[in-house]
Amino acid sequence: LYGVSPPDNAQVKEVRCIAIVPQIGNHQTVTLPHALPDHDYLSDLEPLGWIHTQPNELPQLAPQDVATHASIMADNDTWDGERTAVITCSFTPGSVSLVAYKLTPAGFDWGRNAARDDPASLTGAPNPPGFGPNLYDKVQMLLSDRFLGFFMVPDNDVWNYNFMGVQMSKNMKYNLKLANPEAFYAELHRPTHFLNFTSMDQLGADEADVEDHFT
User: Which of 130, 187, 202, 210 has an alpha carbon 20 to 30 Å from 173's alpha carbon atom?
Assistant: First the structure.
């Protein structure tokens, strides 16, 4: 997420851009490149955090999200703990629920250490050792139709690597362009599936050309 503060209130942040970077994710964790988005269109904007989509609304910020946010903060000085947030986007039945959180200093320390020293603890119980509500605070968030924002995506349009994980690397480099993101199940995100479909269609056509003397 990238945005600006209005001239009359530095405490308010207005989201102007969502940059969709290459990723592999599920409802619990996400793998992102170490390199942050970089483009001239982002030069006048400040980083405001990131969004994690999930199928159910949780009563707390997940420990995996704490660790991910702390890791990005630790690796990038441009990410300030007071100005960047994690927004969870939960697709609840019949609605979408948005909640924003920021890490406390204790949350930053716990998340950074957990991601670095004990990543296995983040894949098990929902409350790993040391995790608690003191690690994050909720942040007020308002939705408005007054602002026009934009998306940025990789210059090859591919952002979802769930179906071709071998091509995804945390050290991968990517360039951005101004465009709306392709759908999760778009053909370019799962080319192998469409090759299989094509093979099946061709096989079916070949079989149809063979005369069956028993019909």
Answer: 187
